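User: Study the fold:
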Amino acid sequence: MSVFDEDEADGDHDFLDEEPTDAEQDLAPEVDVPSVDAPEVPDASDAPAGLRRKFWTLVATFNIALFAVSIGLLFVVFRGRVRDGGLAVVLGLALFTAGYRRYRRYTNEGVAGDADDD
């Protein structure tokens, strides 16, 4: 005699498929979920063209920088190609630095532009 029923041993039985009993439903807490209005997502075309261009330039810069650093480290660690991997890491770090400096310049321009409006 087996402890497990062979019909349940095939993996087709799921304990979560069963409906809760009346006793389980009585023990479950009743929660009032408030209704919330979903916020409106602004259309991307609302942003000025210059800002969108700056944003996507920074996105591309940081993506390429991350890719270069990652590939460079993989070359060094797994292939032992220190020269090629090191060059990729240095290129990636230079792109990170350039992207960060560009980001800081854009944010400082925005702060200076806001101060000029007063």
In short: The mean pLDDT is 82. Residues 82-116 form the longest helix (35 residues). Residues 50-116 form one domain. DSSP finds three helices and no strands in the chain.
